[in-house]
């Protein structure tokens, strides 16, 4: 089974950069050749094209990102399987429009990838509620202190047998 661990994050916005900032920490660990670790923190259309260049390469993708969501405590890491719910084409078009303006959003990315059937059958999303989203190249100290904890969760989800 080939698995992609994909970091997605806003460059230079502290905890909103979580997906891409955690990747170097993950890359220091031992991974077999069955795992690829990639920073996909660029526009959703470019990511779609990246997936289209590698059709069927991956059996599972683990997306690692952060987003400000209502009702979550800062520092919360939500882990879920992508449900492949039916998509509203108008919403997908709005996601495409945001993407081409430079918005980096895991939500937009997931809808676009699903709509164009670029996702593998197994998709796991790890979504962090940021503590801070001010300008900065690294995550907040509270989040960085939990990198080992987050790495273990990512490894568990990446290696999970289905």
What's a quick, concise take on this entry?
The protein has 162 residues and is an alpha/beta fold. The chain has helices at 18-27, 44-52, 89-100, 106-115, 141-144, 147-159, and strands at 3-7, 35-39, 60-66, 77-81, 122-128.
Task: Describe, in plain words, how this protein is organized in 3D.
This protein is of the alpha/beta class and 162 residues long. It has a domain of 110 residues: Rossmann fold, CATH 3.40.50. Helix content is 36%, strand content 18%. It is built from six helices and five strands. A five-stranded mixed sheet has the order 2-1-3-5-4, with helices on one face. Strand 1, helix 1 and strand 2 form a beta-alpha-beta unit. Helix 2 crosses helix 4 and helix 3 packs across helix 4. The longest helix is centred in the last third of the chain and has 13 residues. The mean pLDDT is 93.
Entry keywords:
162 residues; alpha/beta; Rossmann fold; 5-stranded mixed β-sheet; 6 helices; globular
- Can you tell me the CATH architecture of the domain at 3-42 and 55-83 and 119-159? 3-Layer(aba) Sandwich
Question: What class do helices, strands and sheet pairing give?
Answer: alpha/beta
What's the number of extended β-strand segments? 5
H-E order: EHEHEEHHEHH
- Biggest sheet strand line-up: 2-1-3-5-4
Cα Rg? 15 Å
* CATH structural fold name of the domain at 3-42 and 55-83 and 119-159: Rossmann fold
**The first-level CATH class name of the domain at 3-42 and 55-83 and 119-159:** Alpha Beta
CATH superfamily of the domain at 3-42 and 55-83 and 119-159: HybD-like
Which band does the percent of strand residues land in?
15-25%
What's the overall geometry?
globular
Number of helices: 6
Characterize the main sheet.
5 strands, mixed
Helical residues, percent: 25-40%
């Amino acid at each position: 089974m080939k698995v992609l661990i994909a970091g997605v994050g806003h460059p230079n916005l502290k905890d909103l950069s979580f997906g891409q900032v955690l990747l170097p920490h993950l890359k220091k660990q031992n991974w077999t050749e069955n795992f690829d670790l990639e920073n996909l923190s660029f526009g959703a259309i470019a990511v779609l094209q990246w997936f289209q260049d590698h059709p069927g390469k991956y059996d599972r993708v683990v997306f690692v990102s952060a987003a400000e969501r209502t009702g979550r405590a800062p520092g919360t890491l939500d882990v879920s399987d992508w449900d492949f719910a039916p998509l509203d084409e108008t919403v997908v078009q709005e996601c495409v429009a945001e993407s081409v303006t430079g918005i980096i959003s895991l939500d937009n990315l997931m809808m676009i990838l699903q709509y164009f059937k670029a996702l593998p059958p197994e998709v796991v999303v790890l979504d962090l509620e940021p503590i801070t989203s001010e300008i900065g190249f690294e995550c907040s100290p509270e989040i960085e202190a939990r990198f080992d904890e987050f790495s273990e969760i990512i490894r568990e989800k990446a290696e999970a047998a289905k």
